[in-house]
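Subject: for your reference before the review

Hello V.,

The reviewers asked for a structural picture of the protein, and I figured it would be easier to keep everything in one thread rather than splitting it across files. Below is the amino acid sequence we used in the manuscript, unchanged from the supplementary table.
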Amino acid sequence: MNQSIRKIRDFWSGTQGENHCWWALAAVECGNFVVYMDGFIVTLALPAMARHFDVGLPILKWVVVAYLLAVTVTLLPAGRLADIWGRKRIVVIGMSVIFISAWLCMLAPTVKILIACRVIQGIGGGLVLANVMAEITAVFPKQDQRKAMAVNASVLALSQVTGLVLGGLFIVQFGWRSLFLIILLVSLLGLILSIGILKLRSRTQGRASLDWIGALLAIGATSAPFIFVEELSKNLLNPSSLLLLAVGVVALLLFVLVEQHVRQPLLNLSLFRSRAFTCGSASAAFYFVSAVSCYFFLPLYAQLVLGLSPVMAGVLLIPLSVAITVTSLTIGRLGNRFSARTLSTIGLLCVSVALLGLSSLGTNTSSTAIIAPLILQGMGGGLFNPPNNTATLNQVPPENLSVANGFLSTSRNFGQAIGAAIAATLLAQGLSAAGAGDALAGAAGVRLSGFQLEAFLSAQRSAFQLAATLGLVGAVISVLRPRRAPTAASLKSSGTAQ
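And here is what came back from the structure prediction:
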């Protein structure tokens, strides 16, 4: 017994040595893994949930969107809280919330309670995610940050597809509730690693506090577009839709005004004086709003159009994950030859072309016609994420690192959440207009046919084409960043970003 305790103690002490940065990466990436996996692992289960709760997509989509929205609105306050209280405290609280809410989701008796539990789970996810890249940037030397960011991008890709594959297996064997058992187990591992490995840093000196007014305004400004998208599914010129949009704009303007005058702002607006930070954050939002349509539609397309099982629907996305992982891990070799602007822009262009290819999916599409665009999209993600993340954060002062990471993560997750909301709304609107609102609730393994099939494919085509267009907008923004973005070599030699 004493020998076992000694081995455990030696292990934890070893993680605080010269290799601490890599152990810290393992701890935060465990949190990164569970947060991103949690985002779309339930997509595979939407048909099963539709049958179980006897509800349509207009309600059921909030099982996905509510989680992503809760993550998004939590990120900025979480980043500031981490600057005040320390990243480890916030990460541990976040992992604990995810763990507890996984139990609650697994036991939810109604779809409304399930959605409420997903909101709680999203808050925990935001607390964790706000600190992932900040911890990486803080503990790694400049010359190793590109490698760490590549690992981060690979984990992101692996988490989403691993979640889909494992989710498919669990749905078939144990039912849709078992999905949350996966989240529970991974979050428990992340909690243990975070407690044992992350260093407890001192709190901010002085009477630092959270800017609650700014936090509430930020939540309002971030939430309004989602409700606006929901209202647009009813009537394009609905007065309530226009009012919500106006409320969101006013909340954003008030937020900027408050942050300019408050003593301890939630977001230091001076960060936006850096074109690298501004363009990097904006292009990240457009990348995710584009790429997420694939993760939402393909699991449904595989089950409802191709008649595949949930397991095979998850397997269908493996080429995407492999392409992102391989490209992310090899991108460092190109980092000394090409700027972040060049690599990120090419990545966004690849994503747009891939989505245009996916827009042609039909009932008799060959495997090659599906896999080729997925590989291209994965390569685009691998080219975009590591250099964009590094170039966006490496000029930020240490005292603002967590909140800067929080804003970048907010941009990324805002894109992901709004992309999922748009995709789900287009699908729900298309199915309802064709009188096919109950398409998801059909018997397991039965393909759509007739007007239901036509409505689904039409909505999918429109969603992919819109996503491709938004990806091109992101590419334009990426081009506007500084011509000479910092590379690993330049950072090592000069210690400053260009």
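For the response letter, the relevant points are probably these. The radius of gyration is 22 Å. The CA atoms of residues 88 and 199 lie 7 Å apart.

Happy to draft the paragraph if you're swamped.

O.
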